[in-house]
Amino acid sequence: MQFEEIFGDDEEPDEFDFVIDTHRRRFVGLLIDTSRSMALAQTGGMAAIDALNLHLAEWLPKVRAEGRGQLRDVEFVVITFGAGGVAVASGNRKPSARDDGAFVPAARLTLGPLEAGGATPMVEAVDLALDLVEQRRRHVQEVHGQQCGGPRLILITDGEPTDFEGNPTDEWRRLAVRLQQSRETGRLMLFAFGVPGVKDDVMRELAGEEGYFRLQDLDLKRVLDLALVATAEHVGYRRVADKFEDGF
Amino acid sequence: MNRDVWIVRGDGTRTPDRLGDPVGSVGSQGEVRQLEGDPGRIAKIVHHAGDLSDRVRLMLRDRPGWVTRAGRPVVAWPDAAVHRSDDGRLIGYAAPKLAPPRFVPLPLLFNPAVRARLLPAATWTWWLEVAEDLARTVHAAHQRDHVIGDLAPANIFVSAAGTACLIDVDGWQLRDETTGTDLLCAFSRPEYTAPEELGKPARPRDPASDRWALAVLVAQLLSLGFHPYGGVPFDASGPVEEVDNVRARRCRPLGARVRAPRGAVPADVLPPVLRRRLAEALDDGYDRPEARPDASAWAAGLAYSRRRLTTCERSARHVHAVERAGCPWCSMAAGGGRDPFREDL
């Protein structure tokens, strides 16, 4: 006796409706730096933003496949900061925590091509992510009766926080306090991945020593692979650090 | 990464092989790779396990007969050590590969859309069979003085025939019969961890901790994936997870009033005999681990329940306990949820 039909590797389960079928959900905010430096930096003979789009195109089907099983309870919200200021790139692309808003189940996560340009309004992007995941938690627990654990934010950057004009700002100090409070009372986990150009001391203040992962080169494929590990259930900073230190 | 390895069996024979593509989910404990020289086997690479060589030695010393039943595996027991070919370092172990079309990971079948495609004709009987088979395997492990520890859906594969197979033996609390000592279980998922072990560092565990997890799992299986400690308290003001309800003793099938999704299986789906077992395990056994029914008692209760089933008038696929006043699957559909055993699926 065997199972009837197995999914093909390239088949995307976009018909899956998760709204009522699971007793819990988890929220993952993916924050991607799309500032000007991502257009200027080069990796593998192309602009960093082009490399990122290329790797995202390979990464997204993996996320959707995991969305059938291990990531079945996960909803993503993707926020970019750089070109166009702070923008929601997932779902209906609006900063809405309602159903069919910015959050989409892992099995249905798609993204259009990202563009690079402008300043690095990282602080505003993280603030927006924190607001949205909290609003989404309330909505899902109160309206759908589904449990929501602590949210996870995954931050990918090659720069330092600026205002919308590109001037360095100290606003990240206030954000660091907010993040610490969210870790303590809201069970937040923040995984920050820095690639060359990043401001290490700022990232350590935001993500803490254990939540900050500094890559020596602009290996965006590796960043995305680590981000997927950081999305998995029961994976803490230590497990990501293990994968970070040796791929074996 | 050097992918060339030696596969070293318990009798010392060595064969060269090569690690292939990753198998399974990214967040799994350790990393699982296909063995290129043998499509039926995988290598599990274990990260940073200090006692790996002791574990592998123990697992290989005697491949126990009880890990197969009626010619099928019930535990994917390791059968060789895996060493790097360049420096000889021990990095993990080899074990049978569980894969479609014979086996799929249990969590996949908690997803109704996947279930409708993989098991279109299954009824509630299939879930009772899986639960009973799992209970028999847990009982067999306990008879050998092992404690499974991380007894959770992510470590269970199931077959279309209603059988279960456990994976990740390296995470068990393994008994060394020659010395009488145990290698400890380092990790268990909190939503399946007995209250006396929650938040505690690794320490010797009693089989009663598995009996807690088994009770949770049986309730979850018979609720098609809905965890017995699922649901949101009406006065919740922050994140809520299963473990919060465990700590507050809020168990929905035992009568706790919580907000649950529209599509949740009714809280009273269990027949009286299994509800009693559940109360003994999770209520009486909450702070008295010795009160929890052992795995053989669960297997007997499940076998008994399988003989006391009926179908409703609306659908031959609506199988439920004879003691239940109405059909739970009809009441789900009537309550605005989805009929999980619809005939047109």
TrEMBL record, chain A:
Signal peptide: none annotated. Residues 27-232 form the VWFA domain. It comes from the Bacteria. Transmembrane segments: none annotated. InterPro entries: VWF_A (IPR002035), vWFA_dom_sf (IPR036465). This is VWA domain-containing protein. The lineage of its organism: Bacteria, Bacillati, Actinomycetota, Actinomycetes, Micromonosporales.
TrEMBL record, chain B:
Signal peptide: none annotated. This is Protein kinase domain-containing protein. Residues 1-305 form the Protein kinase domain. Residues 10-33 are annotated as: Disordered. InterPro entries: Kinase-like_dom_sf, Prot_kinase_dom. The lineage of its organism: Bacteria, Bacillati, Actinomycetota, Actinomycetes, Micromonosporales. Residues 11-20 have a biased composition (Basic and acidic residues).
